[in-house]
Hints:
mainly alpha, single chain, 13 helices
Amino acid sequence: MNKKTKEEVQALVDKATSGDKKALETLVTDVQDMIFNLSLRMLGTFADAEDATQDILLKMITHLSSFRGESRFTTWVFQIAVNHLKSYKKHMFANVPLSFDFYGNDIENGKIEDVPDLTQNVDKDILAEELKMSCTNVMLQCLDTESRCIFILGTMFQIDSRMAGDILGMTPEAYRQRLSRVRRKMADFLSQYCGEYGGGRCRCKNRVNYAIQSRRLNPQQLDYVTAAEIPVKTIFDVKSAMEEIDELSQDFSFCKPYQSPGRTKKMIQEFLDSTQLSIIKNS
């Protein structure tokens, strides 16, 4: 989010709720990448994250008049997004929950050597990179919903415990304790199984064909390697130094943020240009 003072943000909110389209576009543009990246990590796939981002932005717009400036605007948006995503039931993993035991067993016992070449003439290194990003993202689905949210806020967005506590409705102390535990759980799994980010024997390049066969990877639909990476500071005004929760920060370098896909931005712009906007402003 582009850094703005509290007064500047409130002025934009006031203008937007009064019908100023430009002010509303600025508010939406400032938070759309933040919402998309939170949705991507919470739900596990680009398609589900795009759908959820649209839903959350719609909620933000329709509830904009309720923002009173009692907290930072980003905190308020995070609260809307987190509440929506914690109860989101339309995503791929909603009815097929994962676990670390299941994931670990698949790594240990999957018959990767029995699968033929399914790469469809796509460079295997590219497919391995796509699988690496997808796998670490899907791995988050092994956490329960609240633990996943805590991990994402603390590790990817590097939100301090006071603000995170406000978003999640818990004390800063409780948040720090939960964050430390869940980060350790993730680090232990990576250390045991993952050869890319830990000390395990699993290598993405060796599992490309197995992943394609299992429909975890589609050579014709590469989301991560085609997405534009952006610095975390571009989408959220993080502190210059995160609170010292633990010593695990370098273990989670896979938590990379991305620009919202062009099709999502196009949808948002079409919505802002539509006649529906006048209805929402009067709701």
